Structures are given as C-alpha cells and as structure tokens.
C-alpha cells in the first residue's frame, strides 16, 4: 500500500509494505498503521485502490476510499492524475 499526504503544500510520499508488519488487507489495522506512519487521522486519509473486497478495511477505519479500474498501468493514460485532484 502506498500513501500520499499533503503537508504544508508539499505532498510527501511514504510506502507501507504489509509483509513487513504481518497484517494484510482488508484488516483495518494495516490502514491504521499506514495512517500512523504518515501522521494523519483516518478521516483525513484517502485510500486509492482497485479491489473493493481488499480495500474495504480502509473505509471501515474511516478513510475515504476511491476505487479505480483494475487496469494495467499502460492502459491508464492519465495514470492517477484524476485522483490527485481529490486531495
């Protein structure tokens, strides 16, 4: 899971690898750990995913969830540009 947060106008990125923590989606704890690493409350976080069953844990925790089509990267001409507009 990758996370992006805005802090004072700059978008610092952090990555969070579930295998390093022994928790995997849809367990809400993985999303809480990611929020903790970023220093944001779940209700201030946006989880972007392409698997409703796996990503429901973020919504359970209180994160906003934006689902995207599960397409290969080369079939997403705008990449995730539209999602960044939600931040």
UniProtKB/TrEMBL annotation:
Alphabetical UniProt keywords? Hydrolase
Q: Which one Pfam family would you cite for this protein? A: Hydrolase
Q: Name one GO molecular function term.
A: hydrolase activity
Q: Which Gene3D superfamilies match?
A: HAD superfamily/HAD-like
**Which InterPro entries does the record match to this protein?**
HAD-like_sf, HAD-SF_hydro_IA, HAD_sf
Instruction: Give yes or no: UniProt keyword Hydrolase.
Output: yes
Please state what the protein is called: HAD superfamily hydrolase (TIGR01493 family)
